[in-house]
Amino acid sequence: MDNESQNNALSQKVSILRQLFPKLWVLLFSTALTGTIWFALSPKKAPSPMVIEANIKPTLFAAHYPANTKFQTELTQLKNSQTLQEQDELEIHKALLSASEYLDIPQSLLWCLLFQESRLNHLEGIENEKASLGLGQFSRFSFFEINYQLERYSSESVNLLYLMFGHDIRPITAKKRDLLHPSSYYSIPTAVVASALYLNNRYKHLTRLLDNRAISYDPDIIWLFSAMAYNKGTRSVLNLWNTYQKKKGPEALYRLLNDLEYFRRFAEDSPLMMRALNKIWEEPQSRAYSKELQIHTGNIMACAVSPLLQPIRHLTEVER
Amino acid sequence: MKPFFTFHSNPVRKSLSPWKTISVFLTFSVLFLSYLAFTDFKSPFKDSSLEENYSSLRQSITQGGLAQFQKDKMQLKNQIIAILNSPKNEDEETKASNIALYLFPEILPNENFEKQAALELWAPLEAEIEQKPRSAKARMLFEELTSNIWNYENPKITNAGLSIYAAETLKLYHAISSP
Lengths: 320, 179
Known about the structure:
Number of strands of chain A: 0
Strand content of chain A: under 5%
Helix content of chain A: 55-70%
Mean pLDDT of chain B: 84
Strand content of chain B: under 5%
Largest interface: A-B, 32 and 27 residues
Number of strands of chain B: 0
Largest sheet of chain A: none
Shape of chain A: elongated
Oligomer: heterodimer
Order of helices and strands of chain B: HHHHHHHHH
Helix content of chain B: over 70%
Shape of chain B: elongated
Low-confidence stretches of chain A: none
Radius of gyration of chain A: 32 Å
Number of helices of chain A: 14
Number of helices of chain B: 9
């Protein structure tokens, strides 16, 4: 009897398991299917936040310019006094957007450079026939480079002229009697494009020299150096690098080429700048040029660099 | 009446006896000579000889022709190599480096950022001008050389804007390329 009752209990358990088994099978199958669909639809490699941070480096340059109050006030005064016509400002802006996008120049840097050079007066120097003319204060040697040596630093530079004007407008000259001619530097789009090309050449030259020596750099910092070269020549920049390297060593030079804070301290170091330029020019000239270069660089930084990366005094106080 | 001034009564005159004057002179001379012996005395003549040799290259081309110019240029190059190898002071080194930059960039040290720029921007043009002196081609090359050097230094556009070394180089190659 005991054996029989045990057998009955066992057979009952087996029958329950038999009833359950298909349900368990369905449960397992549906779990596996869900898991497969889940993995199939999920992204193959989820990017970690660290990777995003490393790849997308924020630019040093301001999205809205001028960033400093001094230039903002000056710009307002120029507009209020009709010295800067609204139509001219729009035309400068339009050409600037196209040129900076094509050449990958930070927009604020190009705008601030033109503002610093001529206060956006595209006819600057036309009356008294100065040696430096127009929006970007071009000299006859700047014209020579754009007209005859444009492809020295980049073979693609000339394409910007086709993109902007439909054909090669060179030779560009300061046509006093035909201001609106596309080949006239007094014409706003021509002046903006030619100045952008000249600035781009300085950048290409500096980066090529660094690439040849396998020295790494932050492109934004080199754009600031290119603005310096636009004002006082590539020679001044190279002498500053030589002097800095000799005085502080290659590691410090690497920091200078990669760190805005180092660049700011360097740009404020009057004795260093004076010493470097004194290797090129004799005493009265080197003193005057180093002062000019320091003011120029300070103004460009205050105007073009993002306010988030600037000390407040740079945004509010600027010498001309 | 007591005389206002007498030779024997003058105390200053008394103190400056000839022997004392000589001893003071000798002391100062010894001090000055020891200063010279223990400090780096910068002779202006040494520096000016370097610059004189540089500017006399123009005379070499006008008076002795291209062969004389190249001979004098080689002598100047050897002088500059010697200075760069063991400069007496920073001033002398700067002057030698400036001349080397515009005439012999290949001898500048590799860590000098200006070397590569010079080798690209004007060294080939200068060599070509020297190969075809006083020709139309040389004048075209000189125009390019002028533009490259001006854009490289990019000072204010005045006659005195360029560095004296850049200006001297342009005068020199103007003399070689002009008919």
